[in-house]
Amino acid sequence: MSKITKDTIKNLPEDEKEIILHLTEIFEGEEETINEYVKNQLIDR
């Protein structure tokens, strides 16, 4: 997983972090897409 994703999720609740980390494993190579989703849907809520 990229450092960008780790930095993005560091302030999220633990259960959300686990889900995102699992998704980055499943969708390897799509880290930027996941990172953008997290920023737009979870952090900016």
Automatic annotation (TrEMBL):
It comes from the Bacteria. This is Uncharacterized protein.
